Amino acid sequence: MYKAQNWLSLNFFAFFFTWGIFMPYWTAWLISSKGLTVESASTVIAVGLLVRSFSTFFIFPTLSSKFPIGLLMKAFALLSVVLLYLFIPFDSFYAMILAMTLFSLVYPLMLPLTESIGAIMMQSERIHYGKSRSFGSIGYTIGLLVIGAVTAYFGEEAIIYVMFVGCLLVVAATFYRTPASLQEKSETTKVPFRSLFQSKRFVIAMIICVLIQGAHASYYNYGFLYLQHLGVNNTWSGIILNIAVIAEIIFFAMADRLMKNVHVSSMFLVAAMASIVRWTLLFLFPNVWVYIFSQLLHSLTFGLAHFAFIRLLYQEFSSREIPAAQGIYASLGMGLSTALLTFAGGYLYKETPGLAFLGMAIVVLPAVFLSLYMRKRFESTPIK
């Protein structure tokens, strides 16, 4: 158990180190290094998210049913390093679209893959998911601190080079003592999506996640720009962005124990309400201190919603079905919804930065009622 736990923790750490660079800073890098406007950069990011939703919905489940999951980790990590280079030689808008399209076919697949491994190991290795996932949050934190310091001294142009270093770290982590259970050939029978959607509880959870996780679009893509709008320098921006991840780390470290007897629907309800509060605050009070306070709510708006969905996968599906279900979640909840709301957020941000966050608060509202319905329909009995 302990070797498997440590391997998973290392891979969560390495991947999320790069995620902490790519998610908050890539828009800024496209604007500063490639000379794109906010709208053009938003389009490039949104196209990447659309491609990501396609690759995680179709490519990821297909490959995970045909190849050992450990082999896929190594292949995705190596390909990501190669495809990342495509961003360097070209400067035009359409060249960036092409580079983002190819990169997004591969790199984001490591997210559902790592999460699937975590859910599978909960069953096969009896690992503690929250413990290993907290190392992912630590990696994200360190990534933010490093990139904040580097950009303060060398400017946003250095972002891609730190990303290269991070991707090489991911390669090293995937090749380090892969557990034997992940080196076995997977079952070749592809899990039909239709069988997964027969679970009404899964369907409702997916809709809730599409709303809650998708509503992070403005924060992920414009949070760094918004801090610049508020007059915060790059070093402090990295520190402020880290507050959210530190809150997330604390949550994941305690989640297995604190959430042991809590219904999935109750977790979703709290996450939805926290999301409405968080994004509304950023609209009503455009100042640094409110932004800092709102960062604490990330433990609920992202961490709690994500933990709830992983718990639901563990409860609803077998280890053979989990990668396909995780692919759907990554595609719709973390990809397509974020892509569509990135388009919307870009136009709202252009009008008034705060409107980009108010729009997200409105999007989350239906998730409150869906969570209440889930509780009444499927989880009315106490947890034993």
UniProtKB/TrEMBL annotation:
Q: Please report the record's description of how this protein sits within the membrane.
A: Multi-pass membrane protein
Q: Which residues form the Major facilitator superfamily associated domain?
A: 7-352
Where is the protein found, in the record's own terms? Cell inner membrane
Mainly localized where? membrane
One Pfam family cited in the UniProt record for this chain: MFS_1_like
**NCBIfam families xrefs:** mfs, PRK11128.1
What species was this sequence derived from?
Bacillus kandeliae
What the entry lists under InterPro entries is as follows: HcaT-like, MFS_assoc_dom, MFS_trans_sf
Q: Which SUPFAM superfamilies match?
A: MFS general substrate transporter (SSF103473)
Protein keywords = Cell inner membrane, Cell membrane, Membrane, Transmembrane, Transmembrane helix, Transport
Q: What is this protein called?
A: 3-phenylpropionate MFS transporter
Membrane-spanning residues: 7-28, 40-60, 67-87, 93-113, 134-152, 158-176, 202-222, 234-255, 267-285, 291-314, 326-349, 355-374
